TrEMBL record:
Protein name: Amidohydrolase family protein
Gene3D superfamilies named in the record: Metal-dependent hydrolases
Domain Amidohydrolase-related: 7-330
Organism from which the protein derives: Streptomyces heliomycini
Record PANTHER family: 2-AMINO-3-CARBOXYLMUCONATE-6-SEMIALDEHYDE DECARBOXYLASE, ISO-OROTATE DECARBOXYLASE (EUROFUNG)
Length: 333
């Protein structure tokens, strides 16, 4: 059991090529202004230096591998920084962004292919491009794509994404659900609430759209990994179950109680509380939780295995989350 590799499914790469591509384009300044309003000046004053200090860890493979060794991590599933979504871009630029992101991530991982597996990007703001973006990512040797919790004017329940879900299911591709920004906007612009409250909220809303709309009924083979332990949803799923059973509108479009769908999803372990992690394992099942660190950002953990050990799971469950589940997902034939 202990010979199973330790696999971290939540780790990021920064792609300067993508930022160079969009630099100076119409729409970028407005997008940055929105991001500034959502986060607030105090958060930006901390986040800028934090990211700059971590650029070697985000871009240099040798630094990444040394950090993995120090953490006891054998394999990382590397996804682009969510700052690369650029949901403001037109179709032409959007295609250039996802192609460059896919190719650059694949190149980064190719320098240590036994230890680094990668995900590309799918542009939710142009649903018609999502399928070709996923296929392009797979053509680069990546295992799937990272997506946000929504795009402007569209939720994950939008019928326009049906071809994408179909393609991901048929290809056996991984879809990593990782929010960027929160539509609560200036309500969260102090004390870094934009992240501490915003990210778990976005996760819960996005997953609820997948569940209540019937996406997971129509595509039972989807391999969706939710970052940040799925946010607030797994620990508050009883309220969803109650609504599903008590109200005709809540239960109109999904066939089963919402809690049952947790066992069709995957969740990373990054919840920052051993008691919450134990509850996540109870709610979703020990076979649906995967080790995650959010490497190398400050809202992650420097010791993902230690954080997992603190939950005091039964030893078989500990090893399943540490790497067994992810190894089966990433390396299955």
């Amino acid at each position: 059991m202990t010979t199973t590799p330790t696999v971290d499914v939540h780790a990021h790469v920064l792609l300067p090529e993508v930022e160079a591509l969009v630099a100076g384009l119409p729409g970028l300044a407005e997008a940055k202004a929105l991001d500034a309003r959502r986060n607030g000046p105090a958060a930006l004053a901390v986040s800028g230096p934090m990211v700059r200090e971590r650029i070697p860890r985000l871009t240099d493979v040798s630094v990444r591998l040394a950090a993995m060794d120090a953490q006891g991590v054998d394999v990382q599933l590397v996804s682009p920084s969510p700052s690369h979504y650029h949901h403001w871009t037109g179709e032409g630029t959007s295609e250039k962004v996802y192609r460059l992101a896919n190719e650059a991530t694949a190149a980064h991982c190719s320098t240590a292919p036994d230890r680094l597996k990668g995900l590309g990007l799918a542009p939710l703001h142009h649903p018609g491009q999502a399928v070709e973006a996923l296929r392009h990512a797979l053509d680069q040797g990546l295992l799937g794509v990272e997506i946000s919790s929504h795009a402007p004017g569209r939720e994950l329940s939008d019928p326009a994404y049906e071809p994408f879900w179909t393609c991901a299911e048929e290809a056996g591709a991984i879809v990593f659900l990782h929010p960027f920004g929160c539509t609560l906007d200036e309500r969260l612009d102090q004390w870094y609430l934009s992240n501490t409250v915003g990210q778990p909220t976005e996760n819960a809303v996005a997953l609820s759209h997948l569940i209540f709309s019937g996406v997971l009924d129509r595509h039972p083979g989807l391999k969706v990994i939710a970052a940040h332990g799925g946010g607030y949803l797994p620990t508050h799923i009883g309220r969803s179950d109650h609504a599903w059973s008590a109200r005709s509108d809540a239960g109109a479009d999904c066939a089963h109680p919402p809690s049952s769908y947790l066992r069709r999803l995957y969740f990373d372990s990054l919840v920052h509380d051993p008691h919450v992690l134990r509850e996540l394992v109870r709610a979703a099942g020990a076979d649906r939780v995967l080790l995650g660190s959010d490497y190398p950002f400050d809202m992650g953990t420097e010791d993902p295995v230690g954080a997992l050990r603190a939950a005091r799971l039964p030893e078989p469950d500990f090893h399943a989350v540490r790497g067994g589940n992810a190894a089966a997902l990433l390396f299955e034939e």
